[in-house]
Known about the structure:
Layout: E1 8-9, E2 16-27, E3 43-51, E4 57-59, H1 65-68, H2 81-96, E5 105-109, H3 117-122, E6 126-130, H4 134-142, E7 147-148, H5 154-164, E8 167-173, H6 182-192, E9 193-204, H7 206-212, E10 224-225, H8 228-237, E11 240-248, E12 254-261, H9 269-281, H10 286-312, E13 317-320, H11 325-333, E14 343-344, E15 362-363, H12 365-369, E16 375-378, H13 384-390, H14 392-396, E17 400-403, E18 409-410
Bound molecules: S-adenosyl-L-homocysteine (SAH), thymidine-5'-diphosphate and zinc ion.
Amino acid sequence: xxxxxxxxxxxxxxxxxxxxxDLGRQPLSDAFRAPDDDTEEFFYRLAVGQCEKCTxxxxxxxxxxxxxxxxxxxxHSSGSSVMxxxxxxxxxxxxxxxxxxxEAFIVEMxxxxxxxxxxxxxxxxxxxGFEPSGAVAEAARAVGVRVRTAFFEDSTxxxxxxxxxxxxxxxxxxxxxxxxxxxxxxxxVDALLAPDGVFVFEDPYLGDVVAKTSFDQIYDExxxxxxxxxxxxxxxxxxxxxxxxxxxxxxxxxxxxxxxRAGRRTPTPAVAALLAEEDAAGLSRLETLRGxxxxxxxxxxxxxxxxxxxxxxxxxxxxxxxxxxxxxxxNFCDIGPELVSFVSDSTPAxxxxxxxxxxxxxxxxxxxxxxxxxxxxxxxxxxxxxIMANEQEFRRSGGKWISYVPTVRVS
Length: 411
Ligand code: SAH
Ligand code: TYD
Ligand code: ZN
Protein backbone atom coordinates (compact mmCIF):
# COMPACT_ATOMS: atom_id res chain seq x y z
CA UNK A 1 0.00 0.00 0.00
CA UNK A 2 1.45 3.45 -0.86
CA UNK A 3 2.52 5.25 2.27
CA UNK A 4 -0.06 8.04 2.02
CA UNK A 5 -2.92 5.53 1.96
CA UNK A 6 -1.95 3.91 5.26
CA UNK A 7 -4.23 5.34 7.99
CA UNK A 8 -2.53 7.85 10.26
CA UNK A 9 -2.36 7.03 13.96
CA UNK A 10 -4.29 9.24 16.39
CA UNK A 11 -1.98 11.42 18.46
CA UNK A 12 -4.36 11.15 21.42
CA UNK A 13 -5.40 7.48 21.59
CA UNK A 14 -3.51 5.67 18.78
CA UNK A 15 -6.75 4.78 16.96
CA UNK A 16 -7.01 4.90 13.15
CA UNK A 17 -7.44 8.35 11.64
CA UNK A 18 -9.71 8.43 8.58
CA UNK A 19 -8.86 11.21 6.16
CA UNK A 20 -11.79 13.34 4.93
CA UNK A 21 -10.12 16.33 3.27
CA ASP A 22 -6.93 16.64 1.21
CA LEU A 23 -5.68 20.22 0.81
CA GLY A 24 -2.64 19.21 -1.20
CA ARG A 25 0.98 20.26 -1.06
CA GLN A 26 1.35 23.28 1.20
CA PRO A 27 4.19 25.50 2.41
CA LEU A 28 4.56 26.54 6.06
CA SER A 29 1.76 29.03 6.68
CA ASP A 30 3.92 31.62 8.47
CA ALA A 31 7.04 31.25 6.28
CA PHE A 32 7.02 34.69 4.65
CA ARG A 33 10.08 35.01 2.40
CA ALA A 34 12.33 37.78 1.16
CA PRO A 35 11.32 38.50 -2.47
CA ASP A 36 14.79 37.54 -3.74
CA ASP A 37 15.07 34.36 -1.65
CA ASP A 38 15.74 31.55 -4.13
CA THR A 39 16.34 28.75 -1.60
CA GLU A 40 14.07 25.73 -1.89
CA GLU A 41 10.78 26.16 -0.07
CA PHE A 42 9.60 23.48 2.37
CA PHE A 43 6.33 21.76 1.44
CA TYR A 44 4.32 19.05 3.16
CA ARG A 45 1.00 17.32 2.48
CA LEU A 46 -1.92 19.00 4.27
CA ALA A 47 -4.74 16.54 4.89
CA VAL A 48 -7.13 16.20 7.79
CA GLY A 49 -8.88 13.19 9.26
CA GLN A 50 -10.85 11.95 12.22
CA CYS A 51 -9.96 9.26 14.74
CA GLU A 52 -12.45 6.38 14.58
CA LYS A 53 -12.00 5.75 18.32
CA CYS A 54 -11.86 9.11 20.15
CA THR A 55 -13.27 11.36 17.32
CA UNK A 56 -10.34 13.81 17.47
CA UNK A 57 -9.96 15.73 14.19
CA UNK A 58 -6.28 16.10 13.29
CA UNK A 59 -3.75 16.48 10.51
CA UNK A 60 -2.41 13.26 9.05
CA UNK A 61 1.14 14.60 8.68
CA UNK A 62 3.18 16.49 11.28
CA UNK A 63 5.60 19.33 10.52
CA UNK A 64 8.62 19.35 12.90
CA UNK A 65 7.96 22.07 15.48
CA UNK A 66 11.32 23.84 15.04
CA UNK A 67 10.45 24.54 11.40
CA UNK A 68 7.40 26.55 12.50
CA UNK A 69 8.34 28.12 15.83
CA UNK A 70 11.75 29.77 15.76
CA UNK A 71 13.49 33.12 16.15
CA UNK A 72 11.69 34.71 13.17
CA UNK A 73 8.14 33.42 13.74
CA UNK A 74 6.24 36.50 12.56
CA UNK A 75 2.80 36.31 14.23
CA HIS A 76 2.33 39.03 16.85
CA SER A 77 -0.82 38.55 18.92
CA SER A 78 -1.09 42.23 19.85
CA GLY A 79 -1.74 43.26 16.23
CA SER A 80 -5.51 43.36 16.83
CA SER A 81 -7.19 45.74 19.29
CA VAL A 82 -10.09 43.29 19.68
CA MET A 83 -7.65 40.54 20.67
CA UNK A 84 -5.85 42.86 23.11
CA UNK A 85 -9.19 43.58 24.80
CA UNK A 86 -10.11 39.89 24.75
CA UNK A 87 -6.90 38.83 26.53
CA UNK A 88 -7.06 41.68 29.06
CA UNK A 89 -10.51 40.33 29.93
CA UNK A 90 -9.20 36.75 30.25
CA UNK A 91 -6.47 38.00 32.63
CA UNK A 92 -8.92 40.03 34.74
CA UNK A 93 -11.20 37.03 35.11
CA UNK A 94 -8.33 34.83 36.33
CA UNK A 95 -7.19 37.58 38.71
CA UNK A 96 -10.68 37.78 40.22
CA UNK A 97 -11.06 33.99 40.63
CA UNK A 98 -8.28 31.37 40.50
CA UNK A 99 -5.48 33.89 41.11
CA UNK A 100 -6.99 35.78 44.06
CA UNK A 101 -4.92 33.95 46.74
CA UNK A 102 -1.54 35.08 48.12
CA GLU A 103 0.50 32.30 46.46
CA ALA A 104 -1.08 32.78 43.05
CA PHE A 105 1.00 31.59 40.08
CA ILE A 106 -0.06 31.24 36.43
CA VAL A 107 1.87 29.58 33.61
CA GLU A 108 0.99 30.25 30.00
CA MET A 109 2.14 28.18 27.04
CA UNK A 110 2.47 30.18 23.84
CA UNK A 111 2.40 33.59 25.55
CA UNK A 112 3.63 35.18 22.29
CA UNK A 113 4.25 38.94 22.76
CA UNK A 114 2.71 38.97 26.25
CA UNK A 115 -0.77 39.99 25.12
CA UNK A 116 -2.40 38.19 28.10
CA UNK A 117 0.40 38.03 30.71
CA UNK A 118 0.98 41.79 30.39
CA UNK A 119 -2.21 42.37 32.43
CA UNK A 120 -1.17 39.73 35.00
CA UNK A 121 2.18 41.47 35.38
CA UNK A 122 0.50 44.86 35.88
CA UNK A 123 -1.49 43.30 38.76
CA UNK A 124 1.81 42.13 40.32
CA UNK A 125 0.83 38.45 40.19
CA UNK A 126 3.46 35.73 39.75
CA UNK A 127 3.54 34.36 36.22
CA UNK A 128 5.69 32.61 33.65
CA GLY A 129 5.26 32.32 29.91
CA PHE A 130 6.67 29.58 27.70
CA GLU A 131 7.40 30.90 24.22
CA PRO A 132 9.79 29.07 21.88
CA SER A 133 9.66 31.76 19.17
CA GLY A 134 12.50 34.16 19.92
CA ALA A 135 11.35 37.49 18.51
CA VAL A 136 7.88 37.38 20.07
CA ALA A 137 9.33 36.15 23.39
CA GLU A 138 11.60 39.20 23.36
CA ALA A 139 8.58 41.43 22.69
CA ALA A 140 6.92 39.97 25.81
CA ARG A 141 10.06 40.57 27.86
CA ALA A 142 10.13 44.16 26.65
CA VAL A 143 6.77 44.76 28.40
CA GLY A 144 8.06 43.19 31.63
CA VAL A 145 6.59 39.70 31.24
CA ARG A 146 8.64 36.73 32.55
CA VAL A 147 9.29 34.34 29.66
CA ARG A 148 11.26 31.18 28.98
CA THR A 149 12.23 30.85 25.36
CA ALA A 150 11.32 27.17 25.34
CA PHE A 151 8.63 24.70 24.33
CA PHE A 152 6.24 23.69 27.09
CA GLU A 153 6.47 19.90 27.52
CA ASP A 154 6.86 17.37 30.32
CA SER A 155 10.51 18.11 31.15
CA THR A 156 10.37 21.92 30.98
CA UNK A 157 7.15 22.00 33.03
CA UNK A 158 8.60 19.70 35.71
CA UNK A 159 11.62 21.98 35.95
CA UNK A 160 9.40 25.00 36.64
CA UNK A 161 7.43 23.04 39.26
CA UNK A 162 10.69 22.20 41.06
CA UNK A 163 11.94 25.78 40.94
CA UNK A 164 8.76 27.78 41.46
CA UNK A 165 6.13 25.54 43.05
CA UNK A 166 2.63 24.69 41.85
CA UNK A 167 0.48 26.83 39.53
CA UNK A 168 -3.20 27.51 40.08
CA UNK A 169 -3.72 28.01 36.36
CA UNK A 170 -2.04 26.65 33.26
CA UNK A 171 -3.39 28.58 30.28
CA UNK A 172 -2.98 28.31 26.51
CA UNK A 173 -4.69 30.34 23.78
CA UNK A 174 -4.41 29.17 20.19
CA UNK A 175 -1.52 26.96 21.23
CA UNK A 176 -2.88 23.57 22.45
CA UNK A 177 -4.24 22.95 18.95
CA UNK A 178 -0.69 23.58 17.63
CA UNK A 179 0.83 20.75 19.65
CA UNK A 180 0.80 17.19 18.25
CA UNK A 181 2.24 15.72 21.46
CA UNK A 182 -0.59 16.00 24.02
CA UNK A 183 0.81 13.14 26.15
CA UNK A 184 3.85 15.21 27.04
CA UNK A 185 1.73 18.33 27.59
CA UNK A 186 -0.63 16.56 30.00
CA UNK A 187 2.31 15.07 31.92
CA UNK A 188 3.72 18.59 32.18
CA VAL A 189 0.41 20.07 33.30
CA ASP A 190 -0.02 17.27 35.84
CA ALA A 191 3.43 17.99 37.27
CA LEU A 192 2.87 21.74 37.45
CA LEU A 193 -0.73 22.19 38.48
CA ALA A 194 -1.84 22.59 42.12
CA PRO A 195 -4.24 19.78 43.20
CA ASP A 196 -7.29 21.99 42.60
CA GLY A 197 -5.81 24.00 39.77
CA VAL A 198 -7.28 24.41 36.31
CA PHE A 199 -5.89 23.83 32.84
CA VAL A 200 -7.66 26.28 30.51
CA PHE A 201 -7.23 26.46 26.75
CA GLU A 202 -9.08 28.14 23.91
CA ASP A 203 -8.80 27.21 20.25
CA PRO A 204 -10.75 27.32 16.97
CA TYR A 205 -13.90 25.20 17.36
CA LEU A 206 -14.68 22.34 15.00
CA GLY A 207 -18.38 23.24 15.27
CA ASP A 208 -17.73 26.73 13.85
CA VAL A 209 -15.34 25.44 11.18
CA VAL A 210 -17.98 23.01 9.91
CA ALA A 211 -20.89 25.47 10.23
CA LYS A 212 -18.98 28.23 8.37
CA THR A 213 -16.91 25.99 6.08
CA SER A 214 -13.88 27.92 7.35
CA PHE A 215 -11.40 25.44 5.89
CA ASP A 216 -8.60 28.02 6.18
CA GLN A 217 -8.43 27.15 9.89
CA ILE A 218 -6.63 24.02 8.67
CA TYR A 219 -2.88 24.55 8.22
CA ASP A 220 0.45 23.25 9.53
CA GLU A 221 0.25 24.97 12.92
CA UNK A 222 -3.36 23.90 13.58
CA UNK A 223 -2.70 20.21 14.15
CA UNK A 224 -5.97 19.56 16.05
CA UNK A 225 -9.48 20.88 15.55
CA UNK A 226 -11.14 20.40 18.93
CA UNK A 227 -14.75 19.76 19.91
CA UNK A 228 -16.20 19.37 23.42
CA UNK A 229 -16.55 15.67 22.65
CA UNK A 230 -12.93 15.09 21.62
CA UNK A 231 -11.52 17.28 24.40
CA UNK A 232 -13.60 15.43 26.99
CA UNK A 233 -12.17 12.14 25.73
CA UNK A 234 -8.61 13.50 25.61
CA UNK A 235 -8.92 14.86 29.17
CA UNK A 236 -10.21 11.54 30.52
CA UNK A 237 -7.32 9.73 28.80
CA UNK A 238 -4.96 11.72 31.05
CA UNK A 239 -6.87 11.67 34.36
CA UNK A 240 -8.47 15.06 33.79
CA UNK A 241 -12.09 16.09 33.36
CA UNK A 242 -13.75 18.73 31.17
CA UNK A 243 -15.54 20.91 33.75
CA UNK A 244 -16.54 23.98 31.73
CA UNK A 245 -16.85 25.21 28.16
CA UNK A 246 -17.48 28.67 26.84
CA UNK A 247 -18.04 29.65 23.22
CA UNK A 248 -16.00 32.65 22.13
CA UNK A 249 -16.59 34.94 19.14
CA UNK A 250 -12.88 35.56 18.47
CA UNK A 251 -10.94 34.13 15.48
CA UNK A 252 -14.12 33.07 13.73
CA UNK A 253 -15.47 31.01 16.63
CA UNK A 254 -13.59 29.29 19.40
CA UNK A 255 -14.29 27.34 22.57
CA UNK A 256 -12.55 27.85 25.91
CA UNK A 257 -12.17 24.50 27.67
CA UNK A 258 -11.57 24.30 31.44
CA UNK A 259 -10.08 21.05 32.70
CA UNK A 260 -9.50 19.96 36.30
CA ARG A 261 -8.17 16.74 37.75
CA ALA A 262 -10.90 14.08 37.59
CA GLY A 263 -13.43 14.41 40.43
CA ARG A 264 -12.09 17.74 41.74
CA ARG A 265 -14.75 20.07 40.30
CA THR A 266 -18.38 19.68 39.32
CA PRO A 267 -18.89 20.17 35.57
CA THR A 268 -21.10 23.14 34.72
CA PRO A 269 -24.33 22.59 32.74
CA ALA A 270 -22.61 24.22 29.75
CA VAL A 271 -20.59 21.03 29.17
CA ALA A 272 -23.62 18.75 28.76
CA ALA A 273 -25.36 21.46 26.69
CA LEU A 274 -22.50 21.74 24.18
CA LEU A 275 -22.12 17.95 23.98
CA ALA A 276 -25.84 17.69 23.19
CA GLU A 277 -25.51 20.40 20.55
CA GLU A 278 -22.64 18.50 18.94
CA ASP A 279 -24.67 15.29 18.92
CA ALA A 280 -27.61 17.06 17.27
CA ALA A 281 -25.28 18.50 14.60
CA GLY A 282 -23.65 15.09 14.00
CA LEU A 283 -20.29 16.78 14.62
CA SER A 284 -18.57 13.55 15.66
CA ARG A 285 -19.67 11.66 12.55
CA LEU A 286 -17.27 11.15 9.65
CA GLU A 287 -20.20 11.61 7.25
CA THR A 288 -20.69 15.18 8.49
CA LEU A 289 -17.01 15.91 7.94
CA ARG A 290 -17.17 14.47 4.42
CA GLY A 291 -20.06 16.87 3.76
CA UNK A 292 -17.84 19.73 5.00
CA UNK A 293 -15.14 18.62 2.54
CA UNK A 294 -17.63 18.82 -0.34
CA UNK A 295 -18.56 22.39 0.73
CA UNK A 296 -14.84 23.31 0.67
CA UNK A 297 -14.56 22.29 -2.99
CA UNK A 298 -17.57 24.46 -3.86
CA UNK A 299 -16.06 27.49 -2.11
CA UNK A 300 -12.77 27.01 -3.94
CA UNK A 301 -14.56 26.85 -7.32
CA UNK A 302 -16.70 29.93 -6.56
CA UNK A 303 -13.76 32.00 -5.33
CA UNK A 304 -11.50 31.15 -8.25
CA UNK A 305 -14.33 31.84 -10.75
CA UNK A 306 -14.97 35.25 -9.18
CA UNK A 307 -11.29 36.27 -9.14
CA UNK A 308 -10.82 35.17 -12.76
CA UNK A 309 -13.88 37.13 -13.84
CA UNK A 310 -12.62 40.26 -12.05
CA UNK A 311 -9.22 39.88 -13.70
CA UNK A 312 -10.90 39.57 -17.12
CA UNK A 313 -12.82 42.77 -16.36
CA UNK A 314 -9.56 44.55 -15.54
CA UNK A 315 -10.52 45.22 -11.90
CA UNK A 316 -7.78 45.96 -9.37
CA UNK A 317 -7.92 43.29 -6.66
CA UNK A 318 -5.74 43.14 -3.55
CA UNK A 319 -6.02 41.14 -0.32
CA UNK A 320 -6.28 42.28 3.30
CA UNK A 321 -4.42 40.51 6.15
CA UNK A 322 -1.47 38.17 5.46
CA UNK A 323 -2.91 35.53 7.78
CA UNK A 324 -1.50 32.06 8.28
CA UNK A 325 -4.99 30.89 7.28
CA UNK A 326 -4.62 32.49 3.85
CA UNK A 327 -1.71 30.19 2.97
CA UNK A 328 -4.23 27.35 2.82
CA UNK A 329 -6.59 29.41 0.63
CA UNK A 330 -3.99 30.70 -1.84
CA ASN A 331 -2.14 27.40 -2.21
CA PHE A 332 -5.23 25.18 -2.33
CA CYS A 333 -7.07 27.49 -4.76
CA ASP A 334 -3.94 28.42 -6.74
CA ILE A 335 -4.31 32.16 -6.17
CA GLY A 336 -1.11 34.07 -6.96
CA PRO A 337 -0.10 37.65 -7.79
CA GLU A 338 -1.82 37.38 -11.19
CA LEU A 339 -5.20 37.30 -9.39
CA VAL A 340 -4.39 39.32 -6.24
CA SER A 341 -1.66 41.91 -6.75
CA PHE A 342 -0.57 42.26 -3.12
CA VAL A 343 -1.65 41.64 0.48
CA SER A 344 -1.92 44.55 2.91
CA ASP A 345 -0.74 43.73 6.45
CA SER A 346 0.04 45.79 9.54
CA THR A 347 2.76 43.43 10.87
CA PRO A 348 6.27 44.81 10.23
CA ALA A 349 7.76 41.27 10.28
CA UNK A 350 5.60 40.31 7.25
CA UNK A 351 5.89 43.51 5.21
CA UNK A 352 8.13 43.67 2.12
CA UNK A 353 8.18 39.87 2.08
CA UNK A 354 6.15 37.49 -0.08
CA UNK A 355 3.53 35.00 1.03
CA UNK A 356 4.47 31.31 1.39
CA UNK A 357 4.05 29.19 -1.73
CA UNK A 358 2.27 31.68 -3.99
CA UNK A 359 4.70 34.56 -3.39
CA UNK A 360 2.17 37.40 -3.30
CA UNK A 361 3.94 40.59 -2.11
CA UNK A 362 3.01 41.82 1.38
CA UNK A 363 2.77 45.60 1.71
CA UNK A 364 2.05 47.95 4.60
CA UNK A 365 -1.50 49.35 4.99
CA UNK A 366 -0.39 52.65 3.38
CA UNK A 367 -0.21 50.79 0.04
CA UNK A 368 -3.84 49.74 0.46
CA UNK A 369 -4.98 53.34 0.81
CA UNK A 370 -3.00 54.91 -1.98
CA UNK A 371 -4.91 54.41 -4.18
CA UNK A 372 -7.74 52.18 -2.91
CA UNK A 373 -8.26 49.05 -5.05
CA UNK A 374 -11.61 48.11 -6.62
CA UNK A 375 -11.86 44.93 -4.54
CA UNK A 376 -10.25 43.67 -1.33
CA UNK A 377 -10.19 39.94 -0.60
CA UNK A 378 -10.59 39.70 3.16
CA UNK A 379 -8.11 37.08 4.33
CA UNK A 380 -8.41 38.33 7.95
CA UNK A 381 -12.17 37.66 7.94
CA UNK A 382 -12.01 36.77 11.64
CA UNK A 383 -11.16 40.43 12.35
CA UNK A 384 -13.89 41.75 10.01
CA UNK A 385 -15.59 44.06 12.56
CA UNK A 386 -12.32 45.74 13.54
CA ILE A 387 -11.15 46.07 9.94
CA MET A 388 -14.50 47.39 8.61
CA ALA A 389 -14.52 50.01 11.36
CA ASN A 390 -11.00 51.15 10.42
CA GLU A 391 -11.46 51.03 6.66
CA GLN A 392 -14.77 52.83 6.12
CA GLU A 393 -13.10 55.12 3.62
CA PHE A 394 -12.45 52.14 1.30
CA ARG A 395 -16.19 51.53 0.83
CA ARG A 396 -16.84 55.25 0.49
CA SER A 397 -14.30 55.32 -2.32
CA GLY A 398 -16.41 52.71 -4.13
CA GLY A 399 -14.37 49.69 -3.02
CA LYS A 400 -15.95 46.29 -2.34
CA TRP A 401 -15.01 43.49 0.03
CA ILE A 402 -14.76 39.89 -1.13
CA SER A 403 -15.30 37.23 1.52
CA TYR A 404 -15.38 33.45 1.30
CA VAL A 405 -16.60 32.53 4.79
CA PRO A 406 -19.22 31.06 5.00
CA THR A 407 -19.79 31.51 1.23
CA VAL A 408 -18.18 33.57 -1.53
CA ARG A 409 -19.76 37.00 -1.75
CA VAL A 410 -19.05 40.59 -2.70
CA SER A 411 -20.33 43.40 -0.48
N1 SAH B 1 -1.46 32.87 22.72
C1 SAH B 1 -1.26 33.75 21.58
C2 SAH B 1 -0.33 33.15 20.52
C3 SAH B 1 -0.92 32.07 19.65
S1 SAH B 1 0.20 31.57 18.36
C4 SAH B 1 -2.59 34.12 20.96
O1 SAH B 1 -3.60 33.47 21.25
O2 SAH B 1 -2.62 35.05 20.15
C5 SAH B 1 0.87 30.08 19.06
C6 SAH B 1 2.10 30.34 19.87
O3 SAH B 1 2.47 29.13 20.53
C7 SAH B 1 3.31 30.77 19.05
O4 SAH B 1 3.80 31.98 19.56
C8 SAH B 1 4.29 29.60 19.21
O5 SAH B 1 5.64 30.00 19.21
C9 SAH B 1 3.87 29.00 20.52
N2 SAH B 1 4.14 27.55 20.76
C10 SAH B 1 4.13 26.53 19.87
N3 SAH B 1 4.40 25.37 20.49
C11 SAH B 1 4.55 25.64 21.80
C12 SAH B 1 4.86 24.85 22.97
N4 SAH B 1 5.05 23.53 22.91
N5 SAH B 1 4.97 25.49 24.15
C13 SAH B 1 4.80 26.82 24.24
N6 SAH B 1 4.51 27.62 23.20
C14 SAH B 1 4.39 27.02 21.98
P1 TYD C 1 -4.89 36.35 12.40
O1 TYD C 1 -6.17 36.15 11.66
O2 TYD C 1 -5.02 36.90 13.77
O3 TYD C 1 -4.12 34.99 12.57
P2 TYD C 1 -3.52 33.83 11.64
O4 TYD C 1 -2.25 34.38 11.04
O5 TYD C 1 -3.24 32.78 12.66
O6 TYD C 1 -4.49 33.38 10.60
O7 TYD C 1 -3.92 37.28 11.54
C1 TYD C 1 -4.35 38.56 11.22
C2 TYD C 1 -3.35 39.20 10.29
O8 TYD C 1 -3.95 40.39 9.75
C3 TYD C 1 -2.08 39.64 10.99
O9 TYD C 1 -0.98 39.43 10.13
C4 TYD C 1 -2.30 41.12 11.24
C5 TYD C 1 -3.19 41.53 10.10
N1 TYD C 1 -4.11 42.64 10.42
C6 TYD C 1 -4.06 43.81 9.64
O10 TYD C 1 -3.25 43.92 8.71
N2 TYD C 1 -4.92 44.83 9.96
C7 TYD C 1 -5.82 44.74 10.97
O11 TYD C 1 -6.59 45.70 11.22
C8 TYD C 1 -5.87 43.53 11.75
C9 TYD C 1 -6.85 43.37 12.86
C10 TYD C 1 -5.00 42.50 11.43
ZN1 ZN D 1 -8.07 8.94 18.91
